[in-house]
Amino acid sequence: MTNKIAPSILSADIMNLERDVKMAENAGADLFHIDIMDGHFVPNMSFSPSVVEGMNRVTDKPLDVHLMIDNPEEYIKPVVEAGTDTVLVHAESTHHTYRSIQMIKQLGAKAGIVVNPGTALENVKELFPIIDQILVMTVNPGFGGQEFLPGMTKKIQRLDQLRQTSATNDFQIEVDGGINDETITKCADAGADIFVAGSYLFGSDDFEGRINKLKDLVED
């Protein structure tokens, strides 16, 4: 399973988004991570399905849409129709996680579940056989630029162990929050496959150098 770097456009220059997307693409981004926030589930607001549609027009890279919203079922169809490849739904945002995953798959996209730092993996174990990804939040969701929560490496490790307990658990482990050249190695060693990086990449004058460094650190 090849490790992948996913720049988070939450940290990009929104007034020059196409420029930043092309820069990231040319630098070797494997996919793009798009946070949609409603100001209720998390204390911030960002983007909409129209941004997904715009991204789909300017890049051929897969789009990884993270729904940080209440009632995510209402946004699943719009974001899939806008061109997303993977839809990620928070376990804490709906009582109907199984139904949400089914909806995503029926619409032809890959489906993932997201767990906040305080959410136990046992709460989502029943979903393992039907998901394509599980995103472990390594910060409290809502804002970019936060520091990595060191206790999350043990959670990633436990998740990787659970993944190996059954042949039906064929999902990828994604991490999001505080990912940089120090924390990425810890996450990779614990078993993560996809690494979302925002301010570490877009906050640098040497985007290509930093993405190459991250790739070198997680090479199989």
From TrEMBL:
Stored InterPro entries: Aldolase_TIM (IPR013785), Ribul_P_3_epim (IPR026019), Ribul_P_3_epim-like (IPR000056), RibuloseP-bd_barrel (IPR011060)
Instruction: List the PROSITE patterns hit by this protein, alphabetically.
Output: RIBUL_P_3_EPIMER_1, RIBUL_P_3_EPIMER_2
Q: Establish whether keyword Cell membrane is in the entry.
A: no
Q: Which GO terms describe its molecular function?
A: D-ribulose-phosphate 3-epimerase activity; metal ion binding
What name does this protein carry? Ribulose-phosphate 3-epimerase
What EC numbers are recorded for this enzyme?
5.1.3.1
Family listed? Belongs to the ribulose-phosphate 3-epimerase family.
| Record function comment | Catalyzes the reversible epimerization of D-ribulose 5-phosphate to D-xylulose 5-phosphate.
Which cofactor(s) does the record list?
A: Co(2+); Mn(2+); Zn(2+); Fe(2+)
What top-level branch of life does the organism fall under?
Answer: Bacteria
Which positions does UniProt annotate for a divalent metal cation binding? H33, D35, H66, D176
Q: In which pathway does it act?
A: Carbohydrate degradation
Q: Which Pfam families match?
A: Ribul_P_3_epim
